[in-house]
Amino acid sequence: MARMKFLCDSDRCIECNACVTACKNEHEVPWGINRRRVVTINDGRAGERSISMACMHCTDAPCAAVCPVSCFYTTADAIVLHDKDLCIGCGYCFYACPFGAPQYPRVGNFGGRGKMDKCTYCAGGPQADNSAVEYIQYGSNRIAEGKLPLCAEMCSTKALLAGDGDMIATIYRERVQKRGYGAGAWGWRTAYRETVTV
Predict the structure, then answer these.
(1) pLDDT, tens digit, for every residue of 88-143?
(2) How many distinct structural domains can be found in the chain?
(3) Is residue 57 very low, low, confident or very high in pLDDT (cuts 50, 70, 90)?
(4) Which of 106, 119, 123, 144 is at a distance of 20 to 30 A from 153, taking alpha carbons?
(5) Do residues 198 and 173 make contact, with C-beta atoms less than 8 angstroms apart?
(6) How far apart are CA 83 and CA 74, in angstroms?
């Protein structure tokens, strides 16, 4: 079975936010929540880089390690999901995640902010695939339809790649060899504890 991964090539990202918009529209994510966001480092200075960030579906997900009710689980495709029916909204996952992926759906006092929400890699949740209940809680399940996450499909420069980890590493390796240098596959080592060898 394939190990699904994300990779953002910071040399290609143009900060257009198409990935953010695609995610919000596909899953009807409420105002104020972004399952994916674009972060710019060194904005307006030499070495400026933009990076599309979301849950990286880590190999040893720190969010799952700290969850007191074990609501995080990993699918056969190595996609890290969380069960909103089990979640108590404690926020431990928010603090443990190096990518800032889990978020509260509302602003307010502790206990009134709701249960955590995060990128699902367009794989839905624990309910039956493409059911109405699954869509209301988690959004569209494109993986069950044989499609890739919409954020990566909508990326106009193909900076954001999603799919089988070996295939993504091959694509990135070819890019690095063509351009003669690599800025680094952002987040890859942190999430998957491995490097893309060139």
Answers:
(1) 999 999 999 999 999 988 777 766 788 899 999 999 999 989 899 999 889 899 99
(2) 1
(3) very high
(4) 106
(5) yes
(6) 11
pTM: 0.86
Burial class (CB in 10 A: 0-12, 13-18, 19+), 43: exposed
Question: Would 186 be classed as within a structural domain?
Answer: yes
- 125: left (phi > 0), else alpha (psi -120 to 50), else beta? beta
Task: Establish if 152 belongs to a structural domain.
Answer: yes
Residue 90 covered by a domain: yes
Does the residue 198 lie in any domain? no
Closest CA to 120 of 185, 51, 74: 74
CB of 73 closer than 8 Å to CB of 64: yes
Residue 68: pLDDT band with limits 50, 70, 90: very high
In this predicted model, what pLDDT tens digit does every residue of 7-36 receive, in sequence order?
A: 999 889 999 999 999 999 999 888 778 899
**Residue numbers of the domain that contains 160:** 4-192
DSSP state of 109: S
CATH of the domain at 177: 3.30.70.20
Q: What string of DSSP letters covers 30-84?
A: PTT--SSEEEEESTTSTT-EEEEES----TT-HHHHH-TT--EEE-TT--EEE-T
